[in-house]
Specification:
14 helices, Aminopeptidase, six-stranded mixed beta sheet, alpha/beta, single chain
């Protein structure tokens, strides 16, 4: 057994109990809940009990609007001049709606066999606890850590990390490090950990259409344009039925895959039938071309309608012609695409296609990031995962988005994602869960990474 392996097995009840505590504090950043700060304080308390020096950092100490960052640090006694590893995680979660689809309270932290349920169980409180506990077990067993350790745990990741760049700039010296372990990593249906070397970028926008100054009787639809139809017509111009974005110059800045990246993509698994079964799908894009699907997953752009609202959506019917309509869209971006430029291309697209009346609002944006496949830290994480799991897959990028670009560009450090999130753990959906067996394995794996990094 490794230094911390026996502790992981013997202390699992304490670990799961603390994870339940975290889940039970609703920390929905989208709703700006007062419990956001309460959750940050609980994270700091758990870290302090683990022997990690912790504090809450703020940009403006007079404002409650900006969620605090929980900072943690442990200086190695035997290796103080050695390397520093940083763990980035977040304590905020997605809204639990639709509530009626949850089998239990979304913030119950209910344990059922090998599963812990609740919003944030996997994303990202379950991942966070594996990092904290790995460090604690080193301190408990040896009184020291093999390398210097730091934590950045933010409270706005689920709303675009809108203030993280400012935090990284303000506290740049405090956050300085040699490498970062990212907030999560997937475990696929074959029990294989997927190491992620990047994140896609993101552009979130709102579209608004207005006709009359109040809702009208629907008989007037012979004379008055319905704003919902106006939005539908505008949305239809953005992409074709195969999901390809048709906005002029949208793809012009996309960086091509390198030879190493293409080789890595070939090694990735993608079980089409299992994917369709788990999500209840009858068909998916390009399902007859596996290589094309794999490339799209790690390096393809998307245009997604995440929300539509107009008129009456209650029980029964109401013959109303609504005065307003709104749509929320998100666009996944890849390296070299800039959210601000893509937003302007979208605005130009609507204007040139006869939709100047559509109000377009920039909600949030993050650039994409991808580190080289042959980076030395990637090799170290891969070896650590192999030691615990026996197998590993390197993915050049997660299909999702996070603020990795800011770490790479401000702190100048490589970022690698690895963790305990089962591929079908329903993150962002009702009945989100985390597997206890994967929490154990990942805690041990994080311990392996810390130990190897201290010797590197």
């Amino acid at each position: 057994m490794t230094i911390i392996e026996s502790r992981v097995e013997s202390e699992i009840d304490t670990l799961t109990s603390q994870l339940q505590q975290l889940i039970r504090v609703p920390s929905v950043s989208a709703k700006k809940q007062l419990t956001i700060t309460k959750c940050a304080e609980l994270v700091s308390e758990i870290m302090s009990k683990a022997g990690i020096k912790s504090e809450l950092l703020k940009l403006d100490y007079n404002s409650e609007e900006i969620a605090p960052v929980v900072y943690g640090e442990v200086k190695s006694k035997n290796n103080p001049d050695g390397k520093t590893i940083l763990f980035y995680n977040h304590y905020d979660v997605q809204p639990p709606e639709p509530i009626e689809l949850w089998e239990d309270d979304p913030f119950s932290g209910k344990i059922d066999g090998n599963l812990i349920f609740g919003r944030g169980a996997s994303d990202d409180k379950g991942e966070l606890i594996t990092r904290i506990k790995a460090v604690q077990y080193f301190l408990d067993e040896t009184g020291d850590v093999p390398c210097n350790v730091k934590f950045i745990i933010e409270g706005e990741e689920e709303v675009g990390s809108s203030h993280l760049e400012k935090y990284l700039i303000k506290y740049k010296q405090k956050f300085s490090c040699d490498a970062t372990i990212w907030e999560f990593g997937y475990i696929d249906e074959n029990e294989t950990p997927i190491i992620s070397l990047g994140m896609k970028g993101l552009l979130c926008v709102e579209l608004h259409a207005t006709c009359a100054n109040a809702d009208l009787h629907s008989s007037l639809a012979v004379l008055v344009e319905n704003p919902a139809w106006r939005l539908v017509h505008a949305l239809k111009t953005i992409r074709d039925e195969n999901g390809t974005i048709t906005i002029k110059n949208w793809h012009e800045d996309i960086r091509d895959f390198s030879a190493e990246e293409l080789e890595s993509i070939k090694q990735e698994d993608f079980d089409i039938s299992d994917f369709k079964k788990n999500y209840g799908l009858s068909n998916i894009f390009n399902e007859n071309d596996t290589e094309k699907m794999k490339k799209a997953s790690v390096g393809g752009v998307t245009s997604n309608i995440s929300g539509l609202f107009s008129g009456y959506i209650g029980e029964g019917s109401k013959t109303v012609l609504p005065s307003k309509a709104m749509a929320k869209l998100d666009f996944r971006l890849v390296p070299e695409m800039k959210p601000e430029k893509q937003f302007e291309l979208l605005r130009d697209h609507f204007d040139s296609n006869g939709f100047k009346d559509i109000q377009l609002k920039f909600m949030s944006g993050e650039p994409a990031c991808r580190i080289p496949v042959n980076n030395e830290f990637v090799k170290l994480v891969e070896a650590s995962a192999l030691e615990e799991f026996g197998k590993v897959i390197k993915s050049i990028s997660s299909a999702g988005t996070g603020p990795m670009w800011y770490f790479n560009n401000i702190l100048k450090c490589p970022c690698v994602g690895i963790g305990c999130t089962y591929k079908y753990s329903r993150i962002h959906s009702p009945n989100e869960f985390v597997r206890i067996d994967l929490i154990k394995k990942t805690t041990k794996c994080i311990g392996n990474i810390i130990e190897r990094f201290g010797k590197s």
